[in-house]
Amino acid sequence: MLPHAPRHGERVELDIERLGAAGEGEGALVLRVGPERALKRYVVAVRKAMVGDRVRAIIESRRRGRYTARVDEVLRPAAGRVAPRCPHFGAREEPGRGCGGCTLQALDYPAQLTVKRDLVQRAMANRGLDPALVAPVRGAEDPWRYRNKMEFTFGDDRERRFALGLFPTGWHNEVIALTTCHLVSTVTAGVVPRVRDWAEARGLSTYRPRDDRGFLRQLTIREGKRTDERLVELVTSPDVAVETVSGPRQAEEVARELLTAVAGFAEELGGRVSSAWWTRHVAIAGQATRLESTLVAGTPVFNDELLLPDGSALRFGIHPRAFFQPNPRQAEVLVAEVLARLGAARTVLDLYCGTGTLALCVARSVDHVVGVEIVADAIDNAVANARANGLDNVTFLVGDVGEVLREHADAPWRAEVDAVVVDPPRAGLMPKAVEQLAAIAPPRIVYVSCSPASLARDIVALRAAGYEVEGAIQPVDLFPHTFHVENVVTLRRTSDAALIPASEG
């Protein structure tokens, strides 16, 4: 036993008991410290340690009473521990490893679902809610190659070589040069190393934030899982001319050549690029950062489809800035869960509607949907998708949710709302939004959440407003091999209790 609290660089042994909020394995050290040899408990988060492992870990830092560490040796592996499929998974201290894209790849998939359910249950218990309300996680049929979007960064690897890939966990001053990725399609995974070799061979520079120099910043690849269409976006500095092995050249000319090469690589791998964009990232001190985008080839958007429970499909045109669920197949599972929970609702209010994914899916089975979103470009995209799908029973409003609901206090549709769908960002519902929900007092709220902690806090606030959880809290795994998990819960109005400011917590 140590006679003191853990210190930087010390090796400690501990059992990994649970998944931490950022995906690390968490365990506790109980030590006798100080002159009185008093028992104290220290929580240690260990990167890339799996729940059920016993590890020897090296202490790295302490912040707000919580220690972080890295695995030195796995002394006893968890029952669900497996060999990771990806060569980039592992400790970031090893060259080419430590990719931040996955955190749970060394656990088999059933074990991942178990630890994610536990994460949600603990979030509920921390707010005094019954953890038994949390149902088993609804997993994916295939937990591999599910992502329809990935942003790859140009930069230097640890040996200061040209790289294109992802950041190691917690680091942004180097890039892992990806040779493969099992979260994206084989086409996307194969394009990345080919683009890296192409750009390096032509002497192109990567952007370095420290000295604000260099040309290549990011390569984003988005693909339709049901359409096989692809949108590729190259993000560069705003430089007009760039250095190459053959001397200075016009930036636009180089960007067009690179995007043409991407399309060629995709075709070699059995795919096709239907939309190619070049975006100049302009950041000037004292001015708002802006993105200047140019359509280089193809159509302005790429298309994908979501299947509804009745077998029909909705088609979505997605532009470079538009949000679309990164895992469309599991998004269909999520949509089906939301639709089932709406019951016989006829007028639905969709808050934080984004590009209207849920609103348009709901519109097929109700009389009227009103969507509210603060991002104007997202609403433009939602309107276009509604029109393309022949849906004329959807109204979209732009603005902060709380303010928009206040401004439309006398709108005719407000009195007709019999269900509300909320899908807020990770921070959850803002106090004004909770107050407006209490004022509207819909019989039913279907809450979709990407943050178990925010969801638990907001359930407490909505209970104070006269709502109770109906049925189970249903987790849905949209992001296998990561610690993220979506949740769907129904709240039914049972009284007109006065709202208390619990949502501030």
Describe this structure in words.
The protein has helices at residues 109-126, 186-201, 251-268, 328-342, 357-363, 376-388, 401-407, 412-416, 431-440, 452-464, and strands at 11-19, 25-33, 38-47, 54-63, 66-76, 149-156, 162-166, 176-177, 216-223, 230-236, 241-244, 247-250, 275-282, 290-298, 302-307, 313-318, 347-351, 368-373, 394-398, 419-422, 444-449, 467-476, 486-493. By secondary structure, the protein is of the alpha+beta class. The protein folds into 3 domains: 1-79, Nucleic acid-binding proteins (OB fold (Dihydrolipoamide Acetyltransferase, E2P)); 149-302, OB fold (Dihydrolipoamide Acetyltransferase, E2P); 306-504, Vaccinia Virus protein VP39 (Rossmann fold). The strands form 5 sheets. A 7-stranded mixed beta sheet has the order 8-7-6-9-10-13-14, covered by helices on one side. The chain has a 7-stranded mixed beta sheet with strand order 19-18-17-20-21-23-22, with helices on both faces. A hairpin with a 2-residue loop joins strand 11 and strand 12. Helix 1 runs parallel beside helix 10, helix 2 packs antiparallel against helix 3 and helix 7 (401-407) runs parallel beside helix 9.
| Number of structural units classed as domains | 3
- Work out the radius of gyration: 25 Å
According to DSSP, the number of beta strands is 23
- Under CATH, the topology of the largest domain can be stated as Rossmann fold
The strand line-up of the biggest sheet is 8-7-6-9-10-13-14
Number of H/I helices? 10
By CATH reckoning, the class of the largest domain would read Alpha Beta
- Strand composition percent: 25-35%
User: What is the 3D form?
Assistant: globular
**Helix residue percentage:** 10-25%
Report the end-to-end length measured between terminal Cα atoms.
Answer: 38 Å
Rounded mean pLDDT score: 93
Please identify, by name, the CATH architecture of the largest domain: 3-Layer(aba) Sandwich
Low-confidence stretches: 499-505
Helix-and-strand structural type: alpha+beta
Tell me the name of the CATH homologous superfamily of the largest domain: Vaccinia Virus protein VP39
Report on the biggest sheet.
7 strands, mixed
